[in-house]
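Duplicate of #3305? Posting structure anyway:
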């Protein structure tokens, strides 16, 4: 998504974004961008990413890409949610955030009246979400004791595992992961849970992370092989699972891959759409990331209907069927899996869009349990 030579509103119009909000609070040290891509199916939902960007243009590009991906993710997962994202520009993502900064971003979210509902993303912690929840009810993933669902990453990992089963059934004719060689790139929240699930499923797991000590701890705990993060993508395996930052699979990487399939939790894994075609030429099956990693958004969406972990896990398990449908659609239409997933998502948005195609504060919305349209309520009252 190029910004050079184009206005931000021009890119927004081209990609269908509804709203981008720039936020600054000098006293709190806050610099942030909130992007709402679409509310055609309901209020936008997406994580807050705390990250060090080389430039503000990089941050804008990231938030626009990520919010659009969230729209597709929610649509293909069958949710009545749109796509949004927030990025907070920080010098060190691993440094604990000051309460003043978190409260400032909470106030900015609150001013949107529910059009953007925040969740945890890269660099964020459950504690961050708890502090933000002190300023706005429009935040998910807060501590269960405060009426939330807690960390969504375990459910995200469950969804990834089920997507892997669908891909293994397609590629190898057997959905079992027992004995399959899987490389997990990224030992963060989701990556760690995925390593555990793969270990329990009998897979031969290797793990890598830019934080070598963190990867070493995960490898030691679950008996996984430790890899150098600089060569993890080139490791021979059955399934490669990118679970760190996005844009890791580009044209120059495709030729070095030694995997049969790519099934990971990271957002925007491909640098551009042409990479999906290059993977297909090489015979590498790519399960689109916004299909695979939908377990997290499925989990937090449950907070608005009375949270049930069992129901969230049941819906995350359905990612297996969704992935299989994407693979079959791609094959039958002669298109890439990325195109097939986008087609399924955009078809649903066009068919089920709210009147006027945009959700406004106080508007009715629908949910995934067959309930009638009703007014959206925040998951918990503001403290």
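Output from current build:
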């Amino acid at each position: 998504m190029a910004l050079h030579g184009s206005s931000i509103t021009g890119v927004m119009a081209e990609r269908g974004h509804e709203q981008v909000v720039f936020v600054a609070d000098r006293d709190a040290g806050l610099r942030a961008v909130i992007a709402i891509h679409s509310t055609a199916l309901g209020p936008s939902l997406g994580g807050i990413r705390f990250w060090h960007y080389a430039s503000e243009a990089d941050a804008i590009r990231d938030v626009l890409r990520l919010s659009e991906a969230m729209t597709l993710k929610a649509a293909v997962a069958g949710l009545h949610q749109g796509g949004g994202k927030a990025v907070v520009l920080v010098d060190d993502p691993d440094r604990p955030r000051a309460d003043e900064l978190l409260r400032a971003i909470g106030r900015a979210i609150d001013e949107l009246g529910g059009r953007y509902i925040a969740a945890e993303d890269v660099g964020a912690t459950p504690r961050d979400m708890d502090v933000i929840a002190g300023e706005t009810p429009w935040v998910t993933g807060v501590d269960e004791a405060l009426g939330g669902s807690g960390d969504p990453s375990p459910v995200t990992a469950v969804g990834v595992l089920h997507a892997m089963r669908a891909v293994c059934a397609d590629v190898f004719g057997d959905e079992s992961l027992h004995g399959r060689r899987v490389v997990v790139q990224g030992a963060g929240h989701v990556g760690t849970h995925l390593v555990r699930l793969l270990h329990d499923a009998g897979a031969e797991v290797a793990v890598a992370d830019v934080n070598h000590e963190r990867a070493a701890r995960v490898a030691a705990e679950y008996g996984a092989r430790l890899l150098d993060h600089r060569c993890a993508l080139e490791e021979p395996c059955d399934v490669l699972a990118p679970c760190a930052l996005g844009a890791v699979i580009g044209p120059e990487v495709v030729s070095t891959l030694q995997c049969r399939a790519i099934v990971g939790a990271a957002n925007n894994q491909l640098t551009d759409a042409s990479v999906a075609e290059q993977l297909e030429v090489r015979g590498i099956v790519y399960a689109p990331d916004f299909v695979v990693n939908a377990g997290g958004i499925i989990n937090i969406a449950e907070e608005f209907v009375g949270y049930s972990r069992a129901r969230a896990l049941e819906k995350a398990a359905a990612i297996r069927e969704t992935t299989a449908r994407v693979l079959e659609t791609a094959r039958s239409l002669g298109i890439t899996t990325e195109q097939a997933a986008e087609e399924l998502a955009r078809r649903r948005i066009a068919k089920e869009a709210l009147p006027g195609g945009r959700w406004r504060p106080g508007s009715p919305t629908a949910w995934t349990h067959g309930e009638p349209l009703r007014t959206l309520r925040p998951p918990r009252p503001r403290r």
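Confirmed duplicate; merging threads. The two ends are 39 Å apart (CA to CA). The chain is about 40% helix and 15% strand.
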